[in-house]
Amino acid sequence: MNDFSAMMILSSIIAAACPIIFAAIGETITEKSGVINLSLDGTILLSAMTAFVISYSTGSVFLGFFMASLVGGFVALIVVFFSIYLRVSQVAVGFVLTLTCRDLAYFIGNPYSRLLGPQVQPLPIPFLSDLPFIGTAFFSHNVVVYVCYIFFFFSWFYIEKTPMGHILKAVGEHPHAAYSRGIHPHRIQLIYGFVGGVFVGIAGASYSLFMKAGWGRPQGCEGIGWIALALVIFGGWNISRVVIGCYLFSFLQVMGIFFQQWFPTFPSPVFQVAPFPLMIFSLVIIHVSQNDKIREWSKDKNVILFFLNRFSHSAPAHLGKRFHV
Question: What is the SS3 assignment for 139?
Answer without folding.
Answer: helix
